[in-house]
Amino acid sequence: MERSSSSWFRWRRKKAREGRGAGGEEDHQHKVVVDGSEIRELVEDREAFGMLVDTTFRQLDANGDGRLSVRELRPAVADIGAAIGLPAEGASPNTDHICSEVVSELTHGTSQGEVSKAEFREALSDILLGMAAGLKRDPIVILRMDGEDLRDFVASSRYEPSAAAIFSQIGSEGAPLRRCLSAALQQLAVDHGVPPASDAWVVENIVEPALRQLPANQLEQPASRDGFVRQLRKLLGAVAERLQEQPVIVAHTENTYDGSGVKRLLANKFELDKLLDSVWRGVPGEHKNKASKECLVAALDKMADAASLPHHGAVKQVDAVVDEAIKTANADDGETVDEARFKKLLTDTLGAVMRQLNSNPVFVSTNTVVHEPLSGSSGLFSSPPPVSSSPSE
After folding, report:
1. Rounded to the nearest 5 degrees, what angle is found at the Cα of 74, between the Cα atoms of 68 and 80?
2. Whole-structure pTM value
3. What are phi and psi of 251, to 5 degrees?
4. Where would I find the EF-hand domain in this sequence (predicted)?
5. Given this model, what pLDDT does residue 93 score?
């Protein structure tokens, strides 16, 4: 498939000349905050957006029949996500639902699940603006980790107290040094300059080569606290060298779910009623007279964005709150319900979720390695260029 339309690149170059960052707000090239601003500007630029739609549609319409099937749409949807910094489908439960939802929205109400160019343009505009709104609320920070921040951490006064505290948490006198060092990398985070050590690529290309630079006989010896602190310093220095040779791109997100979004929704009766009507219309006919947990969870998922909640399955702590709220609202007994009762169950469940999160907020921080280069992507949309790493706050 050809690279993206020239109109998209011309539009991005124009914005670069005007001093805008690629993908969102820039902080002196230390990080890129993908906040949806560039997406909104693209959609509002009618000429650039029109040329993008025309070229993209032509590239995706493999059989030239003037309509796009679901199979032909998925590459476009994947490239939209890559362009705004979302992890690849299957990489993160926080974003995995987006691709399927976008395809469903694009084909909703169309004959045989296909879309014409006009339908594609209209739906793509709606989807992009929806993504932009979501990113404005919950930006994604794109970090390029090249070892600089890690070297600064190791050389700072923070290092020894941090290393000693980590050792007290993960090890004990007598545990093998290798095990303690590997566990320490799991404890360190992007604000230390360490990429996610749970990622298989990071382990194979960064961690293991760095470990091999330490004396093999020492790695299997019992670890003492002082020895651990010394060897961890050496290991992190080796990791920093590997990162300098092979920088790692990380998509970082932070979210606090405190129920405030639910409170705003419940306080806006007009918006709430409109959303409840839309959700009720979307309930399959065979489920309309029976309230089951599965049906209610699906309905709550359709209200998630408006309530500033994650989709079910994305955050286990919030899932537990929702499950408990369904029980509290007596919404999981499979009773026969009409439209009014169904809407009341949803409203009561949201109220229970709000109260629980207000009392016990859930904080979630995710770091996902982006394995595709952010510049030079072969997809239909260009991604933000690599930038130097910076700890996220």
Report:
1. 110
2. 0.62
3. -95, 120
4. 53-83
5. 55
Angle between helices 46-60 and 37-44 (to 10 degrees): 90
Q: Torsion over CA of 22, 68, 6 and 13, rounded to 10 degrees?
A: -10
282-328 confidence digits (pLDDT tens): 877 665 566 677 888 888 988 998 998 988 888 899 999 999 998 88
- Helix (H), strand (E) counts: the chain: 18, 7
Interval 123-141 mean pLDDT: 78
Element containing residue 222 per DSSP (H, E)? none
Residues in the chain: 393
Using alpha carbons, select from 381, 276, 295, 382 the residue that is nearest to residue 336.
Answer: 295
Strand 115-116 relative to strand 67-68, pairing: antiparallel
Query: In the predicted model, what is the mean pLDDT of the chain?
Result: 78
Residue 281 pLDDT level (bands cut at 50, 70, 90): confident
8 A C-beta contact, residue 170 and residue 124: no
3-state secondary structure at position 10: helix
Looking at domain 36-137, its CATH architecture is: Orthogonal Bundle (1.10)
pLDDT of residue 42: 86
Q: Name the one residue in this structure whose structure tokens are 């029976």.
A: 290
- 143: phi then psi, degrees, rounded to nearest 5: -115, 140
Which pLDDT belongs to residue 11? 45
Q: In whole angstroms, what is the distance from residue 40 CA to residue 79 CA?
A: 17
Q: Which of 214, 192, 195 is nearest to 205 (CA)?
A: 195
What tokens were used for 136?
A: 């404005």
Is the CA virtual torsion 133, 263, 254, 302 positive or negative? negative
Calpha distance 138→184 (Å, rounded): 29
C-alpha Rg value of the chain to the nearest Å? 24
Helix (H, G, I), strand (E, B) or coil at 115: strand
Mean pLDDT of 40-49: 88
Q: What is the dihedral of CA 169, 174, 177, 179, to 10 degrees?
A: -60
pLDDT at 21: 44
Q: Which residue matches tokens 């049906």? A: 295
